[in-house]
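Consider a protein example.
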Amino acid sequence: MSELPHDVLIALHALAGVVCFGAGALSLRVSAAQSWRFQVFVVSLAAMWLFLLGAVAVDWSGISAGTRWLYAGLLGLGLYMLWRGARARARLRTQGDGWRPRYIDDLGFTLISLFDGFVIVSAMDLSAPAWLVVIVAVAGVAASILAVRRIKATLGTEPANR
């Protein structure tokens, strides 16, 4: 089996993840679902999942049961991230009472997941021991949660950008 299709799909998955993270961070202050920043976030989030699905499909017959479970878990997390992105879009569209903190929670979950993924993959690429990867992952989640709380507190007092 050629590694080229897998490698291309993983590279596109990673690129979509970087774009999604940047657009998501820029979308924290938006107040309209039609915002180009939010639209790039949603499209790149979907593309990231689809490229991962493609990579899994290309690899499926040649991978171990444990790796299949890992891929299934990552695809499940991706579906949950897509659902949170859809909820963020719905909150932007309806803007009911107290919508912004819940919008930031939904968007923040995807940003935390993406950031942690970047940190974990980087640590693994650097051949860090498993215990260090776990510590880095937990620290990444903790720091990200604190950042989202700070953003929620700050944006509660600032006007939104379109």
